[in-house]
C-alpha cells in the first residue's frame, strides 16, 4: 500500500489540515519515518495560507537542528515566513529573559541587576566552571577518578542542566546520587565535591550576571512563568503551537505545555514512538506520552515512508532477540499492519566478518566506492555508524575513502576542540601571528600543523622542516626563512612544499603587524590561504566544518568574557582554554547532512538525533560492547537524575542491565527505521586492543539468524 492510499494518513491529513470546528488540539504519534514531520510542515503551511499571522505561530523542537525542515519549508513558501519562530525551550527561555531582564534580575538574586546579562555557551560555561573546579583538582581531591578535568567540568554542568530540566533544586544533586548509590562509600565523597563545585559555580554566575543553560531554565520557570502578566504575554503571543519530537524534550518543557495548551487556538504535538534517545540529556519520553490526554484527538500513523518491509522486520526481529522484556516494551502486542510471513529480513543486510579492524575498514571503503562509482549512489545517502568514532577509526576510514575518491566527513559531538586536528593546526599557526603572547608551541604541534596545512608534506618531511625553521627566540615563536636551507636538504623536503611554506610564513608575519582579533585572523587564514589549491584545507569538508565552528566559538567567547579581560589577552586566554580540553559546543552547521555531498561518519546516537534517513547504513564493529554500554560518567547518572526514578531507591546491576538492553533495542529500531535500502554489518573478531568481541548486538544478530533458519 502506498502512503497516499493509507487510510490512517488520509485521516491524519483531514484532521490536521482541515480540522473539525470542535477540535483544535491534536496529538500525532507513530514510529520514525511515517510522515509525522511532513504532516506537521503541511499544517504550518496551511496556517500561513489561511492568513494566520506568522508571529503567532511557534515551531517548538528539542534541538535547533531538528527545526531545519521547517525553516527549509518556510523558504519555499512565497510568503515572508521569517516571522514564524522556530525555537527550543532553551532558546525561548533566553529570548524571554533578555526581554524581561529588568523584571526578574533582582528577584532571581543576580548581583548586578541594573547591568545586562551575559548568556554563556557550552564552551564559555566550561571556561568559568574550570575556574571553580581547578582548585579542587590541583589539591588532588578528584584523584580517585580516572577522567580528565574537562570531563569533570562537563559532568558537573550536566548535573546542573538535569536539575533545571527535571525541576529539582541544584543543591539536591549529590543527595539524590548518594541515595541511589550501592557501591563503595568513597564514591559519595566525589558526589559531595561535585556538589560543592556546582554550588560555587552557581554563586559565581549570580554574582557576575552570567547565565549558563541551567540558570536560564531556572530563571524562566521559577521567576518569569510565576508572573501572571508574563504568562499572559507569552501565551497570548503564540496562539498556534507545533511541537515536534516531543519525546526528546524535558519534563520542564512538558510542564510548560500543560500550562500553555489550554490557551492555544490550535496545537499539534508530534511524538516518535520508541524514541527518547536524548535520555542522557534529560529527555522524558514517558512524560511526552502523557500529553496526549490534554489533546482533543489522537492520530496514529503506522505506514513507513522510509524503510522497506525487510528492514522493518529486521528491526523487530533484533528487538525480540534481545529478550521478551525489551520486545514487550518496544513492540506493539498486536501489530496494526502485520507483515507477511514470507518477508526475509536477511535480504536487506550484508555481512562481512574479518579478524582485524583494518580489514573491516578496507571492506567498508571498497563497498562504498562500488556504491558511489558503479551504482551512482550519492555519497550523502551513506552513513557509516559506530558506537564511538575514535581517531584511529576516523583516520583509517577517511584515508581509505579518499584513496577511492569518495568524499567523507565526520561529526563527533562532545569532543574536545583540541582533539580536532584542523583546530589544533589553526591555533598553532595563529600563535606565530601574535609573538607578543610569548607562546611557543611544542615542536610536535608545529610539525603536525605544517603537515596538515601544506598539501603534499608528509610527517617525515614536516618534521625535518620544523627542525630547521622553527627557532623560538627570546620566548617568541619564529619561523625562519627557508632560503637558508641547504640545497640537498631542500631537495628532500621538496621545492613545491618549501614554496608553499614560504607563502604561509610571509602571511603570518604580515598579520603580526596588523594584530587582528583571533577569530578574524583564523577566518582570513582559511579563506586567503589554507582553503586554496596547494594547501591542506582545500576541498576538505571536515576541515571547513571545524574552521567554521572554531571561528564561531572564538567570537562567542569574546562576547562572553570580553568585559573581564583586556582585549590583547582574549585570544591567548581562548587558546589556553582550548588546550585544557574544553568540549566543543553543538553548532547547527555541523548537522547539515544533506547538502555536503559526502559520506557521513558519526556515532550511532548522533545519527539518530539528526533524524534524517539515508539509503545505506554501515554498522561497524557490531561485536563491540560499545553498542550496549553507557559512557563512564562517575559524577552523574541520567536515570537517577530523572523525574521517574523513585528518590532513595538503589540503582542495582539489574537496573543497569535492563537499561542497557532497552537502550540497545531503541537504538536498533531507530536505525532500521531511518534506512531505506540496506544495512551492512561489519564484524571484526578482535578489537583495536586485540580482545575477542562478542557484544550483545552481535549475539542478537546471531540469535535472529538462527531463528530465521529454523
Describe the structure.
With 710 residues, the protein is of the alpha/beta class. Mean pLDDT is 90; it is low at 334-338. The protein is 50% helix and 9% strand. The protein is globular and about 85 Å long. It has a six-stranded parallel sheet with strand order 3-2-6-7-1-8. The protein has a six-stranded parallel sheet with strand order 9-14-13-10-12-11. The protein has a two-stranded parallel ribbon with strand order 4-5. The longest helix has 23 residues, at 186-208. It has four domains: 3-94 and 221-300, P-loop containing nucleotide triphosphate hydrolases (Rossmann fold, 3-Layer(aba) Sandwich); 118-208, no CATH class; 345-414 and 591-709, P-loop containing nucleotide triphosphate hydrolases (Rossmann fold, 3-Layer(aba) Sandwich); 417-580.
Helices, strands, pairings?
Blueprint: H1 7-17, E1 25-30, H2 36-49, E2 57-60, H3 68-76, E3 85-87, H4 89-104, E4 118-119, H5 122-138, H6 149-166, H7 173-180, H8 186-208, E5 210-211, H9 213-224, H10 228-237, E6 240-243, H11 251-260, E7 266-272, H12 285-290, E8 297-300, H13 309-321, H14 324-330, E9 349-354, H15 357-374, E10 382-386, H16 391-403, E11 408-410, H17 421-430, H18 443-453, H19 459-469, H20 487-493, H21 495-514, H22 518-530, H23 541-561, H24 567-579, E12 599-603, H25 604-610, E13 614-619, H26 653-672, E14 675-684, H27 696-709
Parallel strand pairs: 1-7, 1-8, 2-3, 2-6, 4-5, 6-7, 9-14, 10-12, 10-13, 11-12, 13-14
